[in-house]
Amino acid sequence: MGAGAALGWWGVPLAVFAGAVRVSTPFLFVSLGEVVTEKSGRINLGLEGTLVMGAMAGYAVSYLSGSAWLGVLAAGLVGAALGALHAGICSLPRVNDIAVGIALMLFGTGLAFYLGKPFIAPKAPQLPSLPLGAWSSLPQIRAALSVNALFFVGLAAAPLLAWVFANTGLGLMIRMVGDSADGARAMGYNLNRVRLGATAFGGFMAGVGGSFLSLYYPGSWNEGLSSGQGITAVALVIFARWNPITCLWASLLFGGAGALGPALQSVGITSGYYLFNAAPYILTLLIMVATCTPERTLAGAPGELSITK
Amino acid sequence: MTPASSAPGLEVIAMGKRFGPLSALAEISLKIAPGSVHALLGENGAGKSTLVKCIIGFYHADEGAVLLDGREIAVRNPREAQARGIGMVYQHFTLVPSMTVLENLVMGGSRSLGRIDWPAQRAALEGFLATMPFRVPLDRPVASLAAGEKQKAEILKQLWLRTRFLILDEPTSVLTPQEADEMLRLLRAMVAERRLTVLIITHKFREVFAFADEVSVLRRGRLAGSGRTADLDADALARMMVGDAEQRPASERVAKVAAEPLLRLDRVCATDDRGRPALRDLSLDVRPGEIVGIAGVSGNGQATLVEVLAGQRRHGGTIAVHRQPYHATRAEMLRHRLALLPEEPLRNACVGRMSVAENIAFRSFDRRPICGGVRVRYSVLRREAEGLIARYRVRGAGPDAPIASLSGGNVQRAVLARELSGETDVLIVANPVFGLDFSAVADIHAQILAARNRGTAVLLISEDLDELLELADRILVMSGGRIVHEAAREEADRMVIGRHMAGHA
User: Fold this and answer.
1) Which pTM was predicted?
2) Residues of B with CB below 8 A from A160's CB?
3) I want to staple B224 with a disulfide (CB 3.0 to 4.6 A). Which of A174, B103, B240, B241 is the partner?
4) Do A172 and B78 touch (CB under 8 A)?
């Protein structure tokens, strides 16, 4: 890459930064949605399927309607429907949310591949980005600072969710249902209804995260679009200890790690490209090993979550 | 105060409730006078909890009616009961552990989903608390409160929700004697001011006589009797509770022989699930032929101590049995003939879906005669289990039924049969009679005493002080992960022990 010459090695941190912003967006949306779901006491592992379904639906609607934003909305609604399906099945007696999640993950991806076949070839309108680097003459800086609008939505959503959890009846109700089913029941809350809402919201966010993949970066629809972002984001929620603000930092960290391979390639280091691409997964493992211990339970974990109970 | 908000009276008329083929309640009628404390007494399984849950709308009675201040009411769920001023403090706390007291109280009072005006809510609550006889810290998460404080917070929540008819389900089981007396005195005072009518479920006669105006006794889902506490004595109540069933006489206590300690813990440390220290330099000895009782309010490290002894948790310091280091391996347990009955045995010491016979064989299936080389001889396993089931009077659907299908008392007996069947040198038991009925309690206590008389070193960890005072030769009090007090059987004093349990010596 010729442009790499102008910045030399500075291109690497710049590319990692740009990558962190760009790659983190789907992580951010999926994990913020999953925080809400898990705070209500359910875990939805099906978000990988929701993400792929969202990517497909977003791309298809964008192509058919000509509006990328309509695509994002459609992706969110499809995601919410899948979330509601998860919540609906889980509200039946003796149903395990993990098993249902895995089934929905396979169902979502399978359905997306089946319905998405006709949309692999055509080119759909893409989401616009904000040219925050217009002041610079260097193309790399301009490229790095060209940030998608959805990123800012996610950036605002994280503190907003934290505020909702701490300061509104809605947030306290979700925490109550997720932390003490008995307590919530004694207060007359309908657990299944609250969890339905929380899981549908989680699905909506995952769907929007998926539309980012097909409508901005990488910016096309194909079957290899997701590289496990949906499932990684679920792990990320645990790593972030169910805190929306920490989810934001964690998403940026994973995004940055994911951009390491392409960034090094841009300055000419091509050996070990695939190894560097594996950086997010290695990072996941390392973080989990470093922060988890069988000696104690996870701090901040909602009490009704099936994985911590 | 408006008349409607002052203490109401409540009447239950001919209430009946069935769960499938089982009749849980039949033809129960009681009358609770306005502005009184009414005690509901009965063995476990007698239907006390079912009755109050029918009143509060948690269950729906099949027959009968509930009258509030003389008018029939239909309560479909606890929320509707709350709207009528009927509230309940459950045995298992229903405050949300990760939320602060303030958040819990606010959530109890409001159904709004919008923004919460914290300064206004806090001011309203402070004003309310100022009129209350006791306080709790508002900004601490409930999980960090002691059991007594949680109980107070639960009661405050009920009063904040304008409860006028308060139901308490065994409210003192997690409190020290002092805390229990204080709390009941405070409620008594509020009843005297006619701010409340109280229905209290308990199995402690002491509390019935000290605090209740009237008492009703349930037995096997029926009303066995009721009356004013002033007209009754403990014998009369006990007869109502257990009927005329014969009691096994308590075992004789054989004088113990002083000897070397059999089980010795030296400066044992361990952390709990959250990584906080739960045992701090805990040292104790148990000699053969003695029962050492460990008293303490739950959550002061007792559960961790049992986990350490069972090999479920890593620890610092040393544990020795027969003067040899002990690491809770299966081989060591076998060699030292150590037996262990943890609390909630169905969860902690059984595999629920395996049969009673298999569960009973957990200590012996890999040895002769049950194990013949590689193969488990099921005929032998079954025969041995049948013998133990008969000897320990485990009642249920026979040796082949899954152990989870047994009642709590019978699971406890089955595990005790397994643990005590061979010769034991060391026996560790935690809350062995929690939630059991009278006859099971007498049975299990007799087994533990018999083991002691045979020369077993017994470590008995219990939250029930009466049980310890009855069985133990020495009582140690555990508080904050340490042993803070020791008393021999002869000089053990309930009030002194209570003070140490509470952490102020």
Assistant:
1) 0.76
2) none
3) B240
4) no
Domain count within chain B = 3
Angle among Cα B497, B501, B505 to the nearest 5 degrees reads 75
Give the minimum alpha-carbon distance from B175 to chain A in angstroms, rounded to a whole number.
20
Closest partner CB to A168 (pick from B79, B99, B115): B115
Domain with A103 in it: what CATH number?
Answer: 1.10.3470
Q: Residue A124 sits in which domain range?
A: 3-129+149-308
CATH of the domain at B496: 3.40.50.300
**Helix %, strand %, coil % of chain A (to 5):** 70, 0, 25
Could you say which of A167, A170, A188 has the minimum Cβ distance to residue B77? A188
Residues B187 and B214 placed together within one structural domain of the fold: yes
In B170-253 the beta strands, taken as DSSP E runs, fall at: 197-202, 214-219, 222-228
For residue B150, is it within any domain?
no
Q: What gap in Å lies between CA B151 and CA A112, rounded to an integer? A: 52
Asked if the model's pLDDT at residue A209 lies above 80, the reply is yes
DSSP states along A9-37? GGHHHHHHHHHHHHHHHHHHHHHHHHHHH
Q: Determine, for residues A296 and B111 on separate chains, whether the beta-carbon distance falls below 8 Å.
A: no
Contacts for B397 with CB less than 8 Å, ≥ 6 apart: B405, B406
Q: How far is Cα B96 from Cα B214, in angstroms, rounded to an integer?
A: 33
Looking at the structure, do residues B352 and B223 belong to the same domain, yes or no?
no
Number of structural domains found in chain A = 1
> Looking at the domain assignment, is residue A135 inside a domain?
no
Give me the pLDDT at residue B435, please: 63
- Residue B144 burial class via C-beta count within 10 angstroms: exposed 0-12, middle 13-18, buried 19 and up: exposed
Partner residue facing A169 (CB), from B77, B94, B114: B114
Q: Tally A–B CB contacts below 8 A.
A: 79
**CA–CA distance, B211 with B253 (Å, rounded to integer):** 34
Question: Which of B208, B242, B276 delimits the end of a domain?
Answer: B242
Q: Which of A172, A296, A299 sits opposite B107 (nearest CB)?
A: A172
Put simply, the answer to whether B114 touches A183 (Cβ < 8 Å) is: no
- Pick among A185, A295, A297, A308 to test the B interface (most B CBs inside 10 A): A295
- The domain containing residue B372 runs over which residues? 346-422
When CB atoms are compared, the residue of A167, A297, A302 closest to B274 is A297
* Shared domain check, B78 and B43: yes
CA of B103: which chain A residue's CA is closest? A172
Task: Give chain B positions within 8 Å (CB) of A167.
Answer: 115-116, 118
Helix axes A11-39, A47-65, angle to 10 degrees: 110
C-alpha of B322 from chain center: 33
- Tens digit of each residue's pLDDT (9 = 90 or more) over B400-427: 888 888 877 788 889 988 988 778 899 9
Domain shared by B210 and B322, yes or no: no
DSSP assignment of B235-300: HHHHHHHHTTPPPPPPPP-PPPPP---SEEEEEEEEE-TTS-EEEEEEEEEE-TT-EEEEE--TTS
Q: How many CB atoms lie within 10 A of CB B409?
A: 22
Q: Considering B377, B402, B422, which residue would you say is the last residue of a domain?
A: B422
Cβ neighbours around A245 below 10 Å, total: 12
Q: What is the pLDDT of residue B2?
A: 39
Residues of A with Cβ-Cβ distance to B274 under 8 angstroms: 296-297, 299
E strand or H helix at A148, and its extent?
Answer: strand A146-148
Residues of A in contact with B304 (CB under 8 A): none
pLDDT band at A70 (very low <50, low <70, confident <90, very high): very high
How far is residue B228's CA from residue B32's CA, in Å, rounded to a whole number?
11
Cα torsion B339, B342, B347, B348 to 10°: value is -60
Start-to-end Cα distance in chain B: 42
Residues B325, B459 share a domain: yes
Mean pLDDT of chain B: 85
A144 lies in a domain? no
